[in-house]
Amino acid sequence: MNNVNTPTLTDAESFTDAKAAVARLIELYDSATNFLCDEFIAAMSAGAAPGSRVRAFYPEVRFTTTTYAQVDSRLSFGHVADPGTYSTTVTRPDLFRHYLEQQIGLLIKNHDQPVTVCVSATPMPVHFAVASRPGLTVPQEGAARFTLRDVFDVPDLATTNDDIVNGTYVPENGVGPLSLFTAQRVDYSLARLAHYTATDPEHFQNHVLFTNYQFYVTEFEAYAREQLANPDSGYTSFVSTGNIEITTADGELPASLKMPQMPTYHLKRPDGNGITLVNIGVGPSNAKTATDHIAVLRPHAWLMVGHCAGLRNSQALGDFVLAHAYLREDHVLDDDLPVWVPIPALAEIQVALEEAVAQETGLEGYDLKRIMRTGTVASHDNRNWELRDQSGPVQRLSQSRAIALDMESATIAANGYRFRVPYGTLLCISDKPLHGELKLPGMASDFYRTQVSRHLLIGIKAMERLRTMPLERLHSRKLRSFDETAFL
Questions:
Q1: Mean pLDDT for the chain?
Q2: pTM for this one?
């Protein structure tokens, strides 16, 4: 097909008002998706390929500055380091409205220059466009009466990558990136999130808790109902799998007939600063998958609150472990973030977690240290490492001074570092394999069982402390590299 049917293209527009710029992005995005959806429905109804190729494009934000003058800002984002032209494609500007208004507004304010909004040269895959229409789906290849890729653009993994995040991106035509993620990368993750979590991306909150046990989900729902019963809590609804949302403490949540791979629940606030809980299950692969996709939503923080093996004889079941370093033997991020890259503890997160533990336990000083050890957490990719020759692993654990072992924490922390999302880890000891206490039925003590509720509450209280923290403190320069994108 030589002919290409596209929406009527419009001229680029400059804006000095962020809200107006985002409104224009929404207008361009809606025009593109509506065009593709209408053409797709027409083609499927006709049962034959249209006479020309059908193509629409993502909208784009572009910014140019000509000065080397340093921006006087407390924030580690919202400005570019060098003169030049920068751009990013944009998807779902309705979903990211507040984020885009904030980021574009900072860029305009800090540089005293307008931004340009226009139609990009990046085609929009039809699969992502139809996601905006409930009930409309793209059939698998061969199910339609014509070859889909001959008519519509489809997702292209060759251009959907993490090059910007990983620091390997090479600018095209001298135009640098404004954002860590392109529109196609965001669309890909939004689709994956809906699949893995069985909740829509718009329900996700800015503070994310990860766990590896269903016990925490039960406690989270109970806490959510308590908050919904309190009109002063600031929380307005609770969302369960299947996008079932309740707004009252006695709201009914029918049991899901089929649980998703990573059941996810959202305790929502109107400003998005509520708490999301993701049960990622067991293993570093799941931890990487979840964080790879949640990262595009640009959360303010994520924390791991799961179970671990205690490695010191002085520890007891139910004790807490606050990670201040990570021994990465999970291997799932080795190609994206080399093991020689240090994953530092973030003071703001550490303090929030320690203060939350003290608040919930009522302990301080030595008594607090007695039930909470701070040290290195090792994450391994082999759940049954105890069944192999232990001399090597145990020697490395001893040399690293590790105090706990799990399979997810280092992955979540490392991906937080990679994606510039503040991260932290507070684990609860469920077994001590080096000291004869294996994780077997009936092994957990009454003290350990009571810790599940307390552990989750500590994670929630830590998030509520972080929620009140100024952005310049939480999103500090510690997670930013030499030449960062302007958008957080």
A1: 88
A2: 0.93
